[in-house]
Amino acid sequence: MLQTNLEHIESEEQLKELIENNEKAVVCCGRMGPMCIPVYDIFEILQGNYPDIQFRDMDFDIPVAAIIKGLPECRKFFGLPFTIYYRNGKVVKATSSIQSAKEVKSVINEVFT
Amino acid sequence: MGENMRKFDVIIIGAGPAGLAAAIYTSRAALSTLVIDESSAGGQVKTTHQVANYPGFVEPVAGHELAANMRKQAEKYGTRFKLAADITALGLSDQGKWVELDNEDKYTAEFVIIAAGSSPRLLDIPGEKDYKGSGISYCATCDGEFYEDKDIFVIGGGNSAMEESLLLLQFVKSITVIHQFDELQAEKITADKVTTNPKVNILWSHEPRAFYKKENKMVVEAENLKTNKRLRLERDGIFIFVGLVPNSTFLKNVPVQLTEYGYIITSPQMETNIKGVYAAGDVRDKRHRQITIAVGDGTIAALEVIKHKLN
Predict the structure, then answer these.
(1) To the nearest 10°, the Cα dihedral for B264, A39, B21, B281?
(2) Which residue from A29, B34, B194, B195 has the fewest beta carbons nearer than 10 Å?
(3) What does the alpha-carbon distance between residue B44 and residue B65 come to, in Å, rounded to a whole number?
(4) With b meaning 16 or more CB within 10 Å and e meaning fewer, what string describes B144-161?
(5) Using alpha carbons only, what angle is made at residue B188 by residues B247 and B244, rounded to the nearest 5 degrees?
(6) Could you say which of B39, B86, B134 has the minimum Cβ distance to residue A38?
(7) CATH homologous superfamily for A7-112?
(8) Nearest one of B75, B28, B37, B12 to B297, comparing CA atoms
């Protein structure tokens, strides 16, 4: 169970609802580990700055995480967390391992603007 | 200075233990306090799995929990935060102190405490950024399981490298340690546990020069520092633990005095060579770096600011 202030994705239905009903969405899939926590924290801060983007997290060890792990974009990932950027229901970017606020903002500018 | 600058009594750059301790003190003394950090609050503590040597906790406390509590404590006394914010311009002189952020917000203060901390050192060689998370990792507890029964490299020979190697040995088939010296810098007790493990071999006096991928394997091009000959070795993954660097590059255009390694030089009162500018925590030049020491540094800096403000 992730201890963050982000909304959690805990089921396939929730993930489907998120990406089908929102133009811009980001899901950070990880654990409560040293590489993941900073990314969740950055999401918590940035969701106030980017109200048009839906920021969520997902526990890496729950069944629905298999969808993220199985994405072609994540096939060669070997570092937590897996962060997936969706636009209009499609994966437009995926990153692996810790990301700084600057890196996350850079991806947001690249894929959402 | 422009007209749109918001004024605080104190600006603290860095929201790790040093910065947050300073903020708790200055805010409790009713000084308006702004804390700026390029990331979230907590510094390196938030990325520490468990903290077992911070007084007051009988059982180890999760690093992110300790960091969150420090932030909440500062907020409770009125500290304002600007997080995930990059400093794009900075002015520090006896005459004035101001900060501009990437969203173009500008702030000025009578006092500045620099508590920017330190970050894991990157090797900064070709391939390192390209394969982060897809062959190159910096955390054994996070990514070790991806390399179960695989052969890996560990780059580094200090305490972090050896402690992380011990964790990795629970998962991997073999570790090749690449180290720039002829002996490990880690504490002997930890180093011995690694070096006596039959799954470990060490490539002494070598430094990586490039990383790249060959099909599913990671390749390290390493240079022998004695002969300058280069060799190429393949494994399934690479873990890098090569120490820390001070977060002081943002000071390059201000006259704060640094050591040759980029640490800020201060007086015992934490004051830098610029009047009213203090430094605290891991970014400061000193022998030991611990959470407790960072908190002490931040406290001293804050008390000095409070003393000068009230005078």
Answers:
(1) -20
(2) B195
(3) 12
(4) bebbeebbbbbbbbbbbb
(5) 5
(6) B39
(7) Glutaredoxin (3.40.30.10)
(8) B12
From chain A residues 74-103, the ones with a CB under 8 A of any chain B CB are: 76-80, 95-98, 100-102
Give residue-wise pLDDT tens across range B90-121: 999 998 999 999 988 999 999 999 999 998 89
Q: What angle do CA B245, B90, B3 make, to 5 degrees?
A: 160
The CA distance from A71 to B183, in Å, is: 43
What domains lie within chain B, and their CATH numbers? 6-120+244-310 (3.50.50.60), 136-240 (3.50.50.60)
Instruction: Report yes or no: B9 at the A interface, CB cutoff 8 Å.
Output: no
Chain centroid to CA B53:
18
pTM of the model: 0.86
Question: Over the stretch B226-260, which tens digit does the pLDDT of each residue have?
Answer: 999 999 999 999 999 998 899 999 999 999 999 99
Domain residue limits, chain A: 7-112
Pick the residue of B35, B36, B37, B39 with the most A CBs within 10 A to test the interface with A by mutation. B39
Query: Using CA atoms, how far apart are residues B165 and B197, in angstroms rounded to an integer?
Result: 11
